[in-house]
C-alpha cells in the first residue's frame, strides 16, 4: 500500500476565463474514474498538467484550447504563488498516470475576447474533459465545485475577483 503522505504533487495550471460581463467560464466534467460520484456532474474551470520543460503560461494556453477551443484571450493576471489540493484517498493513483497526492497549480486569469461560437468542447482529437459549459457569477461557483478543490477556488477568486469589476 502506498503512503499517500510521501507522494508529491503533480504540476498543473488552472485557468479562470472571464467574459466581458465579468462572468466565469465553467465546464461540467465528464466522469472518467471508477469513482464518478466524486466528480460526476461537477463543474470546474479549465486546468491541466504541465509537460516537462513547458512554460507555465504556454501550458495554460494549450490546456485552455484543448478543453474549450478558446484562443481569443487576453492575460489579466497570475496567482502570486502555487496553490495545491489533495485528491480524496480513493482517487490517488486513479486520476493521473503516476500516483500523486494531489496537484499543485499555478493559475492564470484571462478575458475572453472572442465570440461564443469559438467555444468548442472537443477542438482536438483527444477525449473531451467537459460535456457542457456556462458563464457563472463569480460569487456562485463554490457550490458547483467538488469539495476537495474548493479551497483552491476560494484563493483563486480572492486574487482574481478584481478583474470582474
Features:
165 residues; alpha+beta; Nucleoside Triphosphate Pyrophosphohydrolase; five-stranded mixed sheet; three-stranded antiparallel sheet; 3 helices; 30% strand
Explain briefly what this protein structure is.
With 165 residues, the protein is of the alpha+beta class. It has one domain: Nucleoside Triphosphate Pyrophosphohydrolase, CATH 3.90.79.
Protein model, in words:
The protein has helices spanning 36-39, 56-68, 150-160, and strands spanning 9-18, 24-29, 43-44, 47-49, 73-78, 83-86, 102-112, 130-136. The protein has 165 residues and is of the alpha+beta class. The protein has a single domain (4-164), classed as Nucleoside Triphosphate Pyrophosphohydrolase (Alpha-Beta Complex). Strands 1, 4, 5, 6 and 7 form a 5-stranded mixed sheet that branches. A 3-stranded antiparallel sheet has the order 3-2-8, with no helix packed on it. The model has no long low-confidence stretch (mean pLDDT 90).
Mind telling me the C-alpha Rg? 15 Å
Query: Mean of the pLDDT scores?
Result: 90
Low-pLDDT windows of residues: none
- What would CATH call the architecture? Alpha-Beta Complex
Give the SSE layout:
Elements: E1 9-18, E2 24-29, H1 36-39, E3 43-44, E4 47-49, H2 56-68, E5 73-78, E6 83-86, E7 102-112, E8 130-136, H3 150-160
Parallel strand pairs: 1-7
Antiparallel strand pairs: 1-4, 2-3, 2-8, 5-7, 6-7
Amino acid at each position: 500500500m502506498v503512503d499517500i503522505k510521501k507522494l508529491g504533487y503533480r504540476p498543473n495550471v488552472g485557468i479562470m476565463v472571464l467574459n466581458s460581463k465579468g462572468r466565469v467560464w465553467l465546464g461540467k466534467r465528464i466522469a472518467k474514474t471508477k469513482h464518478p460520484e466524486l466528480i460526476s456532474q461537477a463543474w470546474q474551470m479549465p486546468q491541466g498538467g504541465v509537460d516537462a520543460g513547458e512554460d507555465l503560461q504556454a501550458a495554460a494556453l494549450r490546456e485552455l484550447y484543448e478543453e474549450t477551443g478558446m484562443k481569443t484571450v487576453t492575460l489579466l493576471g497570475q496567482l502570486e504563488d502555487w496553490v495545491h489540493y489533495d485528491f480524496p484517498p480513493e482517487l490517488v493513483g486513479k486520476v493521473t498516470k503516476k500516483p500523486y497526492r494531489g496537484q499543485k497549480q499555478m493559475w492564470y486569469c484571462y478575458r475572453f475576447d472572442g465570440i461564443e461560437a469559438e467555444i468548442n468542447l472537443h477542438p482536438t482529437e483527444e477525449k473531451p474533459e467537459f460535456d457542457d459549459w456556462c458563464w457563472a457569477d463569480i460569487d456562485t461557483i463554490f457550490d458547483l465545485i467538488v469539495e476537495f478543490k474548493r479551497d483552491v477556488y476560494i484563493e483563486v477568486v480572492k486574487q482574481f475577483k478584481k478583474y470582474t469589476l
